[in-house]
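User: I'm curious whether this sequence folds into something compact or stays loose and floppy. Could you predict its structure so I can see for myself?
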Amino acid sequence: MDTIKALLFSFFHLLFFLSGQQQQVLGHRQLYGFRPTKIFVFGDSYVDTGNIPKSVLGSWKEPYGLTFPGKPAGRFSDGRVLTDYLARFVGIKSPIAYRWRKIALKNLKYGMNFAFGGTGVFDTLVANPNMTTQIDFFQQVIKEAVYSPADLKSSLALVSAAGNDYSTYVAVNGSAEGFQPFITKVVNQLTLNMKRIHGLGVRKILVPSLPPLGCLPQSTSKLSFQQCNETENSLSGFHNLLLQQAVAKLNNETQDSAFVILDLFGAFMTTFKNKGSSKTENPLKPCCVGIGKDSSCGSVDDNGVKLYTVCAKPEASFFWDGVHPSQEGWQSVYSALKPKLLQIYC
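Assistant: Here's the prediction. I'll summarize afterward.
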Protein backbone atom coordinates (compact mmCIF):
# COMPACT_ATOMS: atom_id res chain seq x y z
CA MET A 1 0.00 0.00 0.00
CA ASP A 2 2.83 2.38 0.87
CA THR A 3 4.41 1.59 -2.48
CA ILE A 4 1.19 2.50 -4.31
CA LYS A 5 0.93 5.76 -2.33
CA ALA A 6 4.52 6.58 -3.17
CA LEU A 7 3.90 5.92 -6.86
CA LEU A 8 0.75 8.08 -6.84
CA PHE A 9 2.61 10.87 -5.06
CA SER A 10 5.42 10.70 -7.63
CA PHE A 11 2.88 10.69 -10.48
CA PHE A 12 1.03 13.76 -9.23
CA HIS A 13 4.31 15.49 -8.43
CA LEU A 14 5.41 14.90 -12.02
CA LEU A 15 2.10 16.28 -13.33
CA PHE A 16 2.54 19.35 -11.15
CA PHE A 17 6.11 19.81 -12.39
CA LEU A 18 5.09 19.46 -16.05
CA SER A 19 2.22 21.87 -15.49
CA GLY A 20 4.67 24.37 -14.02
CA GLN A 21 6.96 24.01 -17.01
CA GLN A 22 4.04 24.53 -19.36
CA GLN A 23 3.01 27.63 -17.42
CA GLN A 24 6.53 29.01 -17.82
CA VAL A 25 6.27 28.55 -21.57
CA LEU A 26 2.76 29.99 -21.79
CA GLY A 27 3.13 32.52 -19.00
CA HIS A 28 4.58 35.28 -21.14
CA ARG A 29 1.49 35.03 -23.37
CA GLN A 30 -1.03 34.96 -20.53
CA LEU A 31 0.44 37.14 -17.80
CA TYR A 32 -0.13 40.43 -19.56
CA GLY A 33 -3.19 41.86 -21.30
CA PHE A 34 -1.45 42.16 -24.68
CA ARG A 35 -1.15 38.91 -26.59
CA PRO A 36 -0.14 39.50 -30.23
CA THR A 37 -1.97 37.39 -32.79
CA LYS A 38 -0.37 38.86 -35.91
CA ILE A 39 3.08 39.97 -37.04
CA PHE A 40 3.79 42.50 -39.78
CA VAL A 41 7.35 42.41 -41.11
CA PHE A 42 9.34 45.10 -42.93
CA GLY A 43 12.93 45.18 -44.08
CA ASP A 44 15.48 42.98 -45.76
CA SER A 45 16.90 39.48 -46.16
CA TYR A 46 17.28 38.91 -42.42
CA VAL A 47 13.50 38.70 -42.19
CA ASP A 48 12.27 38.05 -45.78
CA THR A 49 10.42 34.72 -46.09
CA GLY A 50 9.73 34.66 -49.82
CA ASN A 51 9.00 38.05 -51.39
CA ILE A 52 11.99 38.11 -53.75
CA PRO A 53 11.04 37.06 -57.32
CA LYS A 54 12.52 33.68 -58.20
CA SER A 55 14.46 35.23 -61.09
CA VAL A 56 16.27 37.84 -59.01
CA LEU A 57 18.40 36.53 -56.15
CA GLY A 58 19.79 33.27 -54.84
CA SER A 59 17.30 32.59 -52.07
CA TRP A 60 15.21 30.58 -54.56
CA LYS A 61 18.22 28.59 -55.75
CA GLU A 62 19.90 25.53 -54.32
CA PRO A 63 21.35 25.06 -51.76
CA TYR A 64 19.18 27.64 -49.94
CA GLY A 65 16.47 25.95 -47.88
CA LEU A 66 18.59 22.82 -47.53
CA THR A 67 17.77 22.30 -43.84
CA PHE A 68 14.23 23.74 -43.92
CA PRO A 69 11.99 23.10 -45.75
CA GLY A 70 14.42 20.89 -47.72
CA LYS A 71 14.31 23.01 -50.89
CA PRO A 72 14.69 26.70 -51.83
CA ALA A 73 11.77 28.68 -50.41
CA GLY A 74 12.85 32.32 -50.61
CA ARG A 75 14.66 32.51 -47.28
CA PHE A 76 18.26 33.72 -47.26
CA SER A 77 19.52 30.80 -45.20
CA ASP A 78 19.62 27.03 -45.16
CA GLY A 79 16.44 27.16 -43.07
CA ARG A 80 14.47 29.39 -40.74
CA VAL A 81 15.23 33.10 -40.25
CA LEU A 82 14.49 35.69 -37.53
CA THR A 83 10.84 36.10 -38.57
CA ASP A 84 10.18 32.39 -38.05
CA TYR A 85 11.65 32.42 -34.54
CA LEU A 86 9.69 35.51 -33.53
CA ALA A 87 6.49 33.82 -34.72
CA ARG A 88 7.44 30.74 -32.70
CA PHE A 89 7.91 32.86 -29.60
CA VAL A 90 4.53 34.54 -30.04
CA GLY A 91 2.89 31.17 -30.72
CA ILE A 92 1.69 31.64 -34.30
CA LYS A 93 2.74 30.55 -37.78
CA SER A 94 5.12 32.75 -39.75
CA PRO A 95 3.21 35.54 -41.51
CA ILE A 96 2.53 35.05 -45.20
CA ALA A 97 4.87 36.76 -47.67
CA TYR A 98 3.22 39.75 -49.35
CA ARG A 99 3.65 38.29 -52.85
CA TRP A 100 1.65 35.18 -51.85
CA ARG A 101 -1.17 37.07 -50.10
CA LYS A 102 -3.81 36.25 -52.74
CA ILE A 103 -2.89 32.57 -52.89
CA ALA A 104 -2.60 31.48 -49.25
CA LEU A 105 -5.64 33.33 -47.90
CA LYS A 106 -5.99 31.12 -44.82
CA ASN A 107 -2.61 32.34 -43.56
CA LEU A 108 -3.55 36.02 -43.60
CA LYS A 109 -4.70 35.65 -40.00
CA TYR A 110 -1.07 35.48 -38.85
CA GLY A 111 -0.13 38.83 -40.40
CA MET A 112 1.95 39.63 -43.47
CA ASN A 113 5.61 39.90 -44.38
CA PHE A 114 6.47 42.90 -46.59
CA ALA A 115 10.27 42.51 -46.38
CA PHE A 116 12.36 42.16 -49.55
CA GLY A 117 15.92 40.85 -49.48
CA GLY A 118 18.61 43.28 -50.55
CA THR A 119 16.60 46.39 -49.69
CA GLY A 120 17.19 49.17 -47.21
CA VAL A 121 15.62 52.19 -45.61
CA PHE A 122 16.56 53.99 -48.86
CA ASP A 123 16.99 52.60 -52.35
CA THR A 124 19.88 50.16 -52.75
CA LEU A 125 21.59 48.47 -55.70
CA VAL A 126 18.80 45.88 -55.65
CA ALA A 127 15.71 47.01 -57.54
CA ASN A 128 13.16 45.98 -54.95
CA PRO A 129 10.78 48.06 -52.77
CA ASN A 130 12.56 50.03 -50.06
CA MET A 131 11.06 50.22 -46.59
CA THR A 132 8.92 53.28 -47.32
CA THR A 133 7.31 51.45 -50.25
CA GLN A 134 6.83 48.35 -48.11
CA ILE A 135 4.89 50.45 -45.61
CA ASP A 136 2.88 51.84 -48.55
CA PHE A 137 1.93 48.24 -49.37
CA PHE A 138 0.87 47.75 -45.76
CA GLN A 139 -1.22 50.90 -45.82
CA GLN A 140 -2.94 49.73 -49.01
CA VAL A 141 -3.72 46.34 -47.43
CA ILE A 142 -5.34 48.19 -44.51
CA LYS A 143 -7.37 50.32 -46.92
CA GLU A 144 -8.58 47.11 -48.58
CA ALA A 145 -9.90 46.05 -45.15
CA VAL A 146 -7.79 42.89 -45.06
CA TYR A 147 -7.14 43.77 -41.42
CA SER A 148 -9.42 45.59 -39.01
CA PRO A 149 -8.38 48.19 -36.39
CA ALA A 150 -8.83 45.44 -33.78
CA ASP A 151 -6.43 43.20 -35.74
CA LEU A 152 -3.82 45.94 -35.77
CA LYS A 153 -4.27 46.60 -32.07
CA SER A 154 -3.39 42.97 -31.34
CA SER A 155 -0.37 42.94 -33.65
CA LEU A 156 3.32 43.68 -33.56
CA ALA A 157 5.79 44.72 -36.25
CA LEU A 158 9.33 43.52 -36.92
CA VAL A 159 11.38 46.22 -38.67
CA SER A 160 14.82 45.16 -39.95
CA ALA A 161 17.53 47.41 -41.38
CA ALA A 162 20.54 45.08 -41.37
CA GLY A 163 23.05 47.12 -43.38
CA ASN A 164 22.15 47.20 -47.10
CA ASP A 165 22.05 51.00 -47.02
CA TYR A 166 25.65 51.03 -45.85
CA SER A 167 26.97 48.50 -48.36
CA THR A 168 25.26 50.55 -51.09
CA TYR A 169 26.89 53.73 -49.76
CA VAL A 170 30.36 52.17 -49.97
CA ALA A 171 29.68 50.72 -53.44
CA VAL A 172 28.50 54.08 -54.78
CA ASN A 173 31.06 56.31 -53.04
CA GLY A 174 34.04 53.96 -53.13
CA SER A 175 34.89 54.48 -49.46
CA ALA A 176 33.43 54.99 -45.99
CA GLU A 177 34.28 58.70 -45.99
CA GLY A 178 31.33 60.73 -44.75
CA PHE A 179 29.78 57.61 -43.25
CA GLN A 180 28.68 59.06 -39.92
CA PRO A 181 26.37 61.75 -41.37
CA PHE A 182 24.86 59.07 -43.61
CA ILE A 183 24.30 56.76 -40.61
CA THR A 184 22.43 59.62 -38.93
CA LYS A 185 20.31 59.98 -42.05
CA VAL A 186 19.52 56.25 -42.11
CA VAL A 187 18.53 56.13 -38.43
CA ASN A 188 16.37 59.23 -38.82
CA GLN A 189 14.46 57.66 -41.70
CA LEU A 190 14.18 54.36 -39.84
CA THR A 191 12.69 56.27 -36.91
CA LEU A 192 10.11 57.92 -39.16
CA ASN A 193 9.23 54.51 -40.57
CA MET A 194 8.67 53.00 -37.14
CA LYS A 195 6.57 55.97 -36.10
CA ARG A 196 4.47 55.62 -39.25
CA ILE A 197 3.84 51.89 -38.66
CA HIS A 198 2.77 52.62 -35.10
CA GLY A 199 0.53 55.41 -36.36
CA LEU A 200 -1.24 52.94 -38.65
CA GLY A 201 -2.39 51.07 -35.55
CA VAL A 202 0.29 48.45 -34.80
CA ARG A 203 0.65 48.10 -31.03
CA LYS A 204 4.30 47.07 -30.65
CA ILE A 205 7.30 47.72 -32.89
CA LEU A 206 10.41 45.52 -32.63
CA VAL A 207 13.54 46.86 -34.30
CA PRO A 208 16.76 44.81 -34.32
CA SER A 209 19.97 46.70 -33.78
CA LEU A 210 22.54 46.58 -36.56
CA PRO A 211 24.60 43.36 -36.40
CA PRO A 212 28.40 43.58 -36.14
CA LEU A 213 29.06 44.23 -39.84
CA GLY A 214 32.78 43.65 -39.35
CA CYS A 215 32.09 40.07 -38.26
CA LEU A 216 30.16 39.07 -41.37
CA PRO A 217 32.09 36.57 -43.51
CA GLN A 218 32.24 39.04 -46.40
CA SER A 219 34.52 41.07 -44.10
CA THR A 220 36.29 38.33 -42.14
CA SER A 221 37.24 36.42 -45.31
CA LYS A 222 40.05 38.96 -45.74
CA LEU A 223 41.32 37.83 -42.33
CA SER A 224 40.91 34.08 -43.01
CA PHE A 225 37.73 34.12 -40.89
CA GLN A 226 39.85 34.51 -37.76
CA GLN A 227 38.79 37.92 -36.46
CA CYS A 228 36.31 40.74 -36.98
CA ASN A 229 36.96 44.10 -38.60
CA GLU A 230 36.69 46.45 -35.64
CA THR A 231 36.49 49.59 -37.80
CA GLU A 232 33.31 48.30 -39.41
CA ASN A 233 31.99 47.19 -36.02
CA SER A 234 32.48 50.70 -34.66
CA LEU A 235 30.18 51.99 -37.42
CA SER A 236 27.58 49.44 -36.32
CA GLY A 237 28.05 50.73 -32.79
CA PHE A 238 27.40 54.32 -33.87
CA HIS A 239 24.21 53.27 -35.69
CA ASN A 240 23.04 51.41 -32.61
CA LEU A 241 23.78 54.32 -30.28
CA LEU A 242 21.66 56.62 -32.44
CA LEU A 243 18.93 53.97 -32.60
CA GLN A 244 18.84 53.67 -28.80
CA GLN A 245 18.45 57.44 -28.48
CA ALA A 246 15.72 57.52 -31.13
CA VAL A 247 13.73 54.67 -29.56
CA ALA A 248 13.99 56.24 -26.09
CA LYS A 249 12.59 59.47 -27.53
CA LEU A 250 9.76 57.63 -29.33
CA ASN A 251 8.77 55.79 -26.16
CA ASN A 252 8.81 59.04 -24.22
CA GLU A 253 6.53 60.62 -26.83
CA THR A 254 4.05 57.74 -26.98
CA GLN A 255 4.07 56.99 -23.22
CA ASP A 256 3.31 53.32 -23.91
CA SER A 257 6.72 51.63 -24.42
CA ALA A 258 5.60 50.67 -27.92
CA PHE A 259 9.12 50.47 -29.35
CA VAL A 260 11.57 47.72 -28.40
CA ILE A 261 15.15 47.22 -29.60
CA LEU A 262 16.29 43.64 -30.16
CA ASP A 263 20.04 43.67 -29.52
CA LEU A 264 21.19 41.77 -32.59
CA PHE A 265 24.73 43.11 -32.18
CA GLY A 266 24.97 41.73 -28.65
CA ALA A 267 23.33 38.42 -29.59
CA PHE A 268 25.82 37.87 -32.42
CA MET A 269 28.82 38.76 -30.25
CA THR A 270 27.63 36.59 -27.36
CA THR A 271 27.28 33.67 -29.73
CA PHE A 272 30.75 34.24 -31.19
CA LYS A 273 32.21 34.40 -27.68
CA ASN A 274 30.53 31.12 -26.83
CA LYS A 275 31.70 29.62 -30.14
CA GLY A 276 28.10 29.48 -31.35
CA SER A 277 26.45 26.24 -30.36
CA SER A 278 28.45 23.39 -28.89
CA LYS A 279 28.68 22.02 -32.44
CA THR A 280 30.19 25.17 -33.97
CA GLU A 281 33.90 25.08 -34.74
CA ASN A 282 34.59 28.56 -36.15
CA PRO A 283 31.55 30.86 -35.87
CA LEU A 284 33.01 33.38 -38.36
CA LYS A 285 33.39 30.86 -41.20
CA PRO A 286 30.33 30.34 -43.42
CA CYS A 287 28.99 26.98 -44.51
CA CYS A 288 28.27 27.84 -48.15
CA VAL A 289 31.01 29.64 -50.12
CA GLY A 290 31.66 30.43 -53.76
CA ILE A 291 34.56 28.91 -55.70
CA GLY A 292 36.54 31.77 -57.15
CA LYS A 293 36.42 35.54 -56.95
CA ASP A 294 33.15 36.20 -58.79
CA SER A 295 31.04 33.36 -57.43
CA SER A 296 29.02 33.00 -54.24
CA CYS A 297 26.70 30.55 -52.54
CA GLY A 298 24.26 29.27 -55.17
CA SER A 299 26.32 30.32 -58.21
CA VAL A 300 26.40 28.03 -61.27
CA ASP A 301 28.10 28.39 -64.65
CA ASP A 302 26.37 28.44 -68.04
CA ASN A 303 26.17 24.65 -67.98
CA GLY A 304 24.61 24.53 -64.53
CA VAL A 305 27.80 23.33 -62.86
CA LYS A 306 28.00 24.41 -59.21
CA LEU A 307 30.48 27.16 -58.43
CA TYR A 308 30.15 26.79 -54.67
CA THR A 309 30.75 24.32 -51.87
CA VAL A 310 28.58 23.46 -48.87
CA CYS A 311 29.97 22.24 -45.57
CA ALA A 312 29.12 18.73 -44.41
CA LYS A 313 27.21 19.96 -41.33
CA PRO A 314 25.27 23.22 -41.73
CA GLU A 315 24.15 22.82 -38.12
CA ALA A 316 27.79 23.32 -37.11
CA SER A 317 28.00 26.78 -38.71
CA PHE A 318 26.73 30.10 -37.39
CA PHE A 319 26.82 31.68 -40.84
CA TRP A 320 25.23 30.16 -43.90
CA ASP A 321 26.79 32.43 -46.54
CA GLY A 322 28.77 35.66 -46.68
CA VAL A 323 26.11 37.73 -44.93
CA HIS A 324 23.34 35.57 -43.46
CA PRO A 325 23.20 33.30 -40.42
CA SER A 326 22.33 29.64 -40.82
CA GLN A 327 19.23 28.22 -39.17
CA GLU A 328 21.50 27.14 -36.32
CA GLY A 329 22.86 30.67 -36.16
CA TRP A 330 19.39 32.19 -35.95
CA GLN A 331 18.47 29.65 -33.30
CA SER A 332 21.44 30.83 -31.20
CA VAL A 333 20.48 34.47 -31.74
CA TYR A 334 16.87 33.71 -30.80
CA SER A 335 18.02 32.05 -27.57
CA ALA A 336 20.04 35.15 -26.68
CA LEU A 337 17.11 37.47 -27.50
CA LYS A 338 14.44 35.57 -25.55
CA PRO A 339 14.67 37.63 -22.33
CA LYS A 340 14.28 40.86 -24.33
CA LEU A 341 11.34 39.45 -26.28
CA LEU A 342 9.35 39.36 -23.04
CA GLN A 343 9.08 43.15 -23.35
CA ILE A 344 6.53 42.52 -26.10
CA TYR A 345 4.00 41.83 -23.36
CA CYS A 346 4.79 44.85 -21.18
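Summary: The first strand starts at residue 38 and ends at 42. The beta strands are 38-42, 96-97, 111-113, 155-159, 204-208, 259-262, 288-290, 308-310.
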